[in-house]
Specification:
The complex is a heterodimer. By secondary structure, chain A is α/β, with parallel strands linked by helices. In chain A, helix 2 crosses helix 3 and helix 2 runs parallel beside helix 4. The relative contact order of chain B is 0.09. Chain B has two domains: 102 residues, D-Maltodextrin-Binding Protein, domain 2, CATH 3.40.190.10; 265 residues, no CATH class. The chains are: A alpha/beta, B mainly alpha. Chains A and B meet through helix 2 of A and helix 1 and helix 7 of B.
Chain lengths: 309, 437
Amino acid sequence: MKNILTVENVCKKYGSFTALNNVSIEVPEGSVFGLLGPNGAGKTSLIRIINQITLPDTGTIYLDGEKLQPHHIQNIGYLPEERGLYKSMKVGEQALYLAQLKGMSKAEAKKKLLYWFEKFEITDWWGKKIQELSKGMAQKVQFIVTVLHAPKLLIFDEPFSGFDPINANLIKDEILQLRDEGASIIFSTHRMESVEELCDNIALIDKSNKILDGKLNDIRQHYKTNQYEVGLLCADKEAVFNQINSKFIVENSKSPSFNNDLRLLISLQKGETSSDMIQFLNNKAQITHFTEVIPSVNDIFLKAVANNG
Amino acid sequence: MDKLKLIIKREFLAKVKNKSFIILTILSPLLMVGLFSLIIFLNEKNSEEIRTVAFVDESHELASIFEDSKSTKYIDLTALGLEEARAKTKEFYYGLLYIPKNDSLVNLSKGISFFSEDTPSLNLLSEIENKLEKKIRDLKIEQLHFDIDKIKATETNVDIATENFSGEKSSKIGSLLRMAAGGGFGYLIFMFIIIYGTSVMRSVIEEKTSRIIEVIISSVKPFQLMLGKILGNALAGVLQFIIWAISAGLILTAITYIFGVEAASSGSAMSKMNPEMLQQVQETSANDLQLVLQEIKNLPILIMFFSFIIYFLGGYLIYSSIYAAIGAAVDSETDTQQFMMPVLMPLIIAIYVGFSVIENPHGSIALGFSLFPLTSPIVMLMRIPFGVPWWQIVLSMFLLIITFIAIVWFAAKIYRVGILMYGKKPSYKELYKWLKY
């Protein structure tokens, strides 16, 4: 698949502090790419380099196959984590100004703004000043300004902060719709459940280094530990538990066991297969439930960062 | 370029639409007019009030000098005696002048006193003192049998005419004019730099605290934003000064119109003078006017105009980019203190040096400060009306432009790093590190 963005061996130092150490990522076209990492890992540094706010010390960046150049600014839409608008400027004027800075003509910008304002049902905000709006309302305006010029690449840094669940959902749907319409999205967040919902690919940055990247599904497969959650229907739970415990490594599941329903987490050792286990369990009790435990992005994140020391 | 235009336009409109700007622009000329009118009005009222001063002249020598003037009337109460005159004055008059009886002229000046309810006006007292001194002097001269008219004929008025070596005549009016022109231009630049430099700084801090900065610089270069901000604010400032200049002109016309009527009425008083005197008066005023016009023509107006533009641009750009860098380095206006002093210092020194330079425009201090680029926009402009050698102007401008480029470069570096730094109160060491990012 074609990559909309390729970052090759980017290094960035601030004085003696290394913000990015030889980081390379590839963002496939038409996908949502999760850029993850703890605070201070270098995510924002990387995003600023992609936006040409700062320049890398070494390394190259390609946007849609071309080496990154100043005019590419209009192909990128960026919603920074630290964001805001001119407080005493009117919403409409401000949105027009920011759109024109991105290279749109005034007429075009106005037309598109009206479309988005109607879509978000905020047309009557046009003449209001930002300071008269609530934080969530201002965020909506900010989102519109980011996507208005229909850029090929959208970069969202913590897009959901400041939104209530209803509006966060609205924004999430908009992001997915933009992806379906052909935009590629880089998505940086701490909210791992939204990563699972949205991202096709992820890269994990920790302490200035990329420590993990690839398709989200592949990574989760890679990180699974051969653990299965099973539900068993049995009268004497303790006896059954002891029998299983003598053969496999067992622990109680996080989901509670009710009445005759026994929930267990069973880890398979090398050489043991899941069918062996099912056979074994089938002889002991009635199986009501059987799933392979796939690690959450959150678990992967914690584990990868811990391993990176 | 289009983006720069957009930024300039936004900064200009943001500044001009600001309520405090509108109020300041409209209100300050009105305030000035109000203050001016009030002073004139109070003066008129004050001079309309006629004070009646009683006097008791026991010496019987001095009564003749007390002629009524526009604001003072004199009443002779010598006949009543001191005690009664005091009582009467307390009831009816402003004050009582008492001249005691004296046997000799030498002692005549002793023991003269003034009684009044309130502290007497200093003007009135010195007026009376002058009259008395003059009269007593005349009396003494008379006693010595000198001819007063002959002594008066010895009084001379010296007016030194000055001329430089290339033959241009100058005059005191001329140097006054030069002082006013130089001081005015220098002070204008000083005010403009402080007012609009601070305004640039505030605007940078506003973008930082509202967190819009990152959105903007993902669309334009930080340098473009900084430049647009500086130019937009300058345009707003120029607009404000133009409005002030126009309204000052209008107000001046209005004032001359209103008070011109009075001038005409005092002109009618002139017509009562005999024709010879009238002619003399007209001649002297025509001469003065001619002299002023001549002096204005003598000023190096072209050089003054062009150097004003260059020093104005250079000075404003240097200082406003420093202000922009300071704004970028801090998180809030309260943090700017530690950086403001070093910026204001050269400006304040320039103004002080400038005003002493007008006294001695070609001294070594004047030369030094008019070459040093952080003070030259003010000091050199104050010197130029007095005539400055070409090489000094060229050298000073050269240094100004070099410094301008260097400072804008440094400021831009600090600016582009600073606008993305939050939560740190930077030290000078930190700023130095930013230069190397």
